């Protein structure tokens, strides 16, 4: 059987040159698959045509923006998905969706192989390949950058050799991945951790603090899903887009972090995710009002584990699925409005209202109307601390250092 | 035996009137104990004298600022202590220290009772009383506000009745607790969650975004302890004080949150903790560089549990002590410098350097000098995902909804 | 409005005398509610009549055996519910069901109060009262043993005083709670932790090792639910009953433990739960075959938290509900047969088969047919350990004690 | 530089033939290192000589029994180290110690390579290689069975070809790893999960239930370390050896499990670990008496994570080290005696006594002398359940399914 390689195609130099290269290496032909995930930039039809120009036998473009927002970004909002408490999983949640469409294309077009452009030291190879094998282990996987040590220099030389009809774009110092959920930037000078990022690293956000007037936004959620902004109904995609615009204009959503990659190394990463971070922050604030304390405490652990699982490429795993069930159940009452101010890089939540609120004015107030039975507290405190009291007594009686003196 | 009540004395109206009131209720006398925790405001000698004027048989003032910084704030930095991911435990860590000194005073002055001014619906009663019983369960505890339903109105009436020589301060709408680590504010109008806080709620921080020039700071840590700011050696107390000043001037460190109290209710709280939040943020950024991935992941769970334990009043508990041992061990390599910019309410970390860094340029770089063995990655990815691959195959073969399609 | 007390009625001396006592204390009347949870012993009609004889205005008996098995025992099997890794929550899961029926009776018969016979130092008061308030906080709660310091001696004196028509049963040294899921025993001589239990403590189990022939059983599960024993279809109730009989005959299911009560003290408890422990052991063994590794690891944490939540009286809590969702999702594939041998107090699992098995002979075998790609392992091991390798190098280079030498 | 391979040498056929094979493949010479970990069987001097006969340039034997017991088994006791709640890490804890001695030998004898006999589908390759790289990443690693697809058949053919002076032992169906802490058995017929193990699989344990008289043992611990058996002082090694003998004679300590390997597959394993399992069971029972409730609950999570970390080959990792610190602190009070009966495969704990006990008779008893303040309980229960009560009210008021009805 002839090889047919289904390639995750971005339209850039590397994957363009990969088309003839993969054809040559496998002796087969190449189907290019490009997804519109709201990454902006070039027109998708141009991307599609370029793949054909480079020799692809088929080239398809899929508008997956709403699918991405509804099935990949929304669960991330509900899980307050932040790896290392910071990174909203920008690339991590796009890879499983791209994979899903590549596998579908392979089934439609008789693909025998799937291919991606990732190197061997990043996370994305893991996310692609674990997902490929989860969805269709019969497909062979080719990662030229890793498996053939295929570098940009080799790609350029090969393009010239075969007179590939593409222009080499002006060399950019940045390596970028972006979609509607956010933008990831790597670049050589940031490999020195002491260097600060420069302004040209950013595209989704303005410099904070330029004197814009503060922007007050009310985000409404139903069962953990953003459904309106300032009272106007929105889809999840529209919510992300509008907040990318408004929060981005205020410089909100920049990250500069040192990240623990799954492959065992640390790397420096710059991210911009104005919409994502604003939505997660608002969602957390609403959970603070609508989730019972012990559920909230345990959900924070669950959220952290969910984020690690997704970061580690295990979107299509059994554990992810059970964590999803936990989270879905917890969202039943996460309904209400969060008012926040976007300004100078900051998100300031300053108002919440919810028909599902667990905040009870009559219990919380110190003013007239207080319904809290303070007499219950005395006994509560006594038994709450009893096991600690007994342990400290044991320590003192035994001449041990006690928990109390910390020695 | 005559009662002798050792009272946690703040110098304010309530605890001042409590002196004669406790004497009357117990038929004994009262020893006033005041701690300087860097709360600022009135001169401590005036506080000490006022207690005597109100009838205390002894009145002592303890300068516990350095003890507080070194033994209570520093562990909080090392645990990245944030309850509900936000609140740096401002009051929660002061109560066990105040308790410790009250118990010492009781032992010195023959106290039979200890007393605090907290109500029955807050967390501080728990922190005081669990700590009292841990340190000396033979002391009886009196909480007049809770146990005698002793209100401010009753206090004022009683003060007039006995002609107590104190002036009633102008009534403030705010109920405040503050120390060098931060400031907590409650007030009636914020009991409506939809109301935003007004400027007069704040004292440790300026309004963000007033056009101050950004302030760049380098904080140096040794084994998780802040030891220098901009190259100048500091004690922990000095670090907090300097950053309170500099971060506060930039509007950094304000919190507006709905909090899950231990007694089972939700409450609205405003906090300011410019130094605390800056130090914890810097410490986290340094941990990102110096802690190995799995240690870092597990430490985040440990930090969260530590914060809940301390919030819940269990500072002197056996679990806290074992969590401390975990955290102490983890800090061995948390040494290095963090550069950050304070501006317009934001803390922006933009540089890290550490002799203990686990970041390895030669493994991370995509440029010349790359030492990462990419050939290892292929097999890694394959086995990393194998159990998920097998599970998905089982699902498909059995006609089950698969983890992969999420249905 | 006149008081009407709905009483959890067991038929024993204490709750019998409580009927006139509660009537007297409240000036109202008493409705007795008794549940058949498979506890055996006395005929339920006699129990019902006795309540009337003691003065109850209504006395109802509810056969809740299947409801208990299906809605309370089955989730415990699926959560491998063992508090402190040992105790299968015998009383802990019965209290929320009894509460539910009491609240229903209160709604039906116009009850204003609910009442239970528990003391103030046990867990059951918590389970009853938290559940009462969750289901209907408008009902007042009376716990005579705790709230009125109502002791057995007082009960007997009162019964004599009012000439209550009940006989005082021969005094037993044991305090017992039992249902089809198990039996709990407390008794004075076991309050010395060094004393071993004597044979007369047990009723559900024979002495182990009496020379019975080993009993081999095959338990079949569908989605985590026991559906057949030795090929014969059973309800959950029947499964428990049959295994109570067969495992009990082999001395399986005895526990002697020191338990951490929620109220802060430790207590010595003897339990017998032959059916429960056999079913949970079989269920765990089937999960070992059918759950993917990371799901299994995380589910163990979830199971432990579920067990603590239920032990602590929080059956009707939001966290319990989200944990249930996680567990329910995980049970999708827990289908298959477990063969085990019951003998001399032991449960020995020695065979498993499952159409949903994740065990893959071709990957596991060392014989002909091995399909495992060993070449993948080398790279896997290298990157799996890379972050540890880098950390140890850092330690050595810095002259630090290394993780490797443990010093 | 000439290659010099330091080989983990067992004395068996495979590693014997590996000596000339490694010399041939590397063009260098081979140093054989054998550890006495209490595995019994052949005299260690014969093992040492055989390596020389097979061509090793050096052959050393290290008596590491006490080191193994004190530094590897003891931490496992203190962590109640059981992977998947069952497997006491028999091979998992020996690999890091063997590695340590191989690295020392490499440094002493100028080794350039280290080598082990593990295949590419097991856990032990991971444990060896992660530890090698942690301790000395400059050493090259050779795993002939995996890297050269070196099988037993090839080994025999090679031995004949070069006329190696070793006899081929009678072929055994079992693949075995054993040391004083336990024994692991794999064999072809158990690769069918429905087959039960046969008697000849076992060597450390007798068949249970043969009518031996029950054996009552008292094990004494100091700070989590076993120090005496039946009142006679023992080293940790002696404790394990004596309990291997006594528990083994009663058939205690057999395991038959399906295990989740780190490389992603499930495997069937038979283990025997009579001493290990008895010691861990006793240690757990003593912790039940001496650890405060919340510490005990959290330690169970920590123990599980510790066990996974060690199982996964990460003995020399930073996380393991911090977990060790937590566990070490928790053992401060784990001092006392546990009495248990070994009989017919069972371990029955029936007595505990400890000068560090947290069990308080006066709080636990229902008899005269009860010191528990029951009046505190009413308020405790009320606030313990308050957040659940509020959440259920919210659900009912909103017409939502409530946590209470589980629908």
Account of the 3D structure:
Four copies of one chain form a homotetramer. Chain A has three domains: 171 residues, 3-Layer(aba) Sandwich (Rossmann fold); 176 residues, Argininosuccinate synthetase, chain A, domain 2 (Alpha-Beta Complex); 34 residues, Up-down Bundle (Single alpha-helices involved in coiled-coils or other helix-helix interfaces). In chain A, strands 3-2-1-4-5 form a five-stranded parallel sheet, with helices on both faces. In chain A, strand 2, helix 2 and strand 3 form a beta-alpha-beta unit. Helices cover 42% and strands 20% of the residues of chain A. Chain A has 407 residues and is of the alpha/beta class. Chain A is built from 14 helices and 14 strands. The interface between A and B is large, with 108 and 107 residues.
Reconstruct the topology from this structure:
4 copies of one chain form a homotetramer.
Chain A: E1 4-8, H1 13-26, E2 29-36, H2 44-53, E3 58-63, H3 65-78, H4 94-109, E4 113-115, H5 124-135, E5 140-142, H6 144-147, H7 152-161, E6 174-179, E7 182-187, E8 215-222, E9 225-229, E10 232-233, H8 236-249, E11 254-260, E12 266-272, H9 274-290, H10 293-311, H11 318-330, E13 336-343, E14 346-353, H12 361-364, H13 375-384, H14 386-397
Parallel strand pairs in A: 1-2, 1-4, 2-3, 4-5
Antiparallel strand pairs in A: 6-7, 7-12, 8-9, 8-13, 9-10, 11-12, 13-14
Helix pairs in contact in A: 1-7, 3-9, 4-5, 8-9, 10-11
């Amino acid at each position: 059987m002839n090889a047919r390689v289904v390639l995750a195609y971005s339209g850039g130099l590397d994957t363009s040159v990969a088309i003839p290269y993969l054809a040559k290496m496998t002796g087969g032909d190449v189907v290019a698959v490009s997804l519109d995930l709201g990454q902006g930039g070039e027109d998708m039809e141009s991307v599609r045509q370029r793949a054909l120009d480079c020799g692809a036998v088929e080239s398809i473009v899929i508008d997956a923006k709403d699918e991405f927002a509804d099935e990949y970004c929304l669960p991330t909002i509900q899980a307050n998905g932040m790896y290392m408490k910071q990174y909203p999983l920008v690339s991590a949640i796009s890879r499983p969706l791209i994979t899903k469409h590549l596998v579908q294309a392979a089934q439609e077009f008789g693909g025998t192989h799937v291919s991606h452009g990732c190197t061997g030291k990043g996370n994305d190879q893991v996310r692609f390949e674990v997902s490929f094998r989860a969805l269709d282990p019969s497909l062979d996987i080719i990662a030229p950058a890793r498996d053939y040590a295929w570098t940009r220099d080799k790609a350029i030389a090969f393009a010239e050799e075969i007179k590939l009809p593409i222009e080499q774009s002006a060399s950019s110092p940045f390596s970028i991945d972006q979609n509607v959920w956010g933008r990831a930037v790597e670049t050589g000078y940031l490999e020195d951790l002491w260097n600060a990022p420069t302004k040209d690293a950013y595209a989704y956000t303005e410099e904070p603090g330029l004197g814009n007037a503060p922007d007050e936004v009310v985000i409404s959620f139903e069962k953990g899903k953003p459904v309106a902004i300032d009272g106007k109904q929105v889809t999840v995609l529209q919510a992300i887009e509008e907040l990318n615009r408004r929060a981005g204009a205020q410089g909100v959503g920049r990250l500069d972090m040192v990240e623990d990659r799954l492959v065992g190394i640390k790397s420096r990463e710059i991210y911009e995710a104005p919409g994502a971070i604003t939505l997660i922050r608002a969602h957390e604030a609403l959970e603070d009002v609508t989730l019972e304390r012990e559920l909230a405490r345990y959900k924070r652990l669950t959220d952290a584990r969910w984020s690690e699982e997704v970061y580690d490429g295990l979107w299509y795993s059994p554990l992810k699925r059970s964590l999803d069930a936990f989270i879905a159940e917890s969202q039943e009452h996460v309904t209400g409005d969060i008012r926040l101010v976007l300004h100078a890089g900051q998100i300031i939540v300053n108002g919440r209202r919810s028909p599902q609120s667990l905040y009870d004015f009559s219990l919380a107030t110190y003013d007239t109307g207080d319904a809290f039975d303070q007499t219950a507290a005395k006994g509560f405190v006594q038994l709450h601390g009893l096991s600690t009291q007994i342990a400290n007594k044991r320590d003192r009686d035994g001449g041990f250092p006690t928990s109390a003196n910390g020695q």
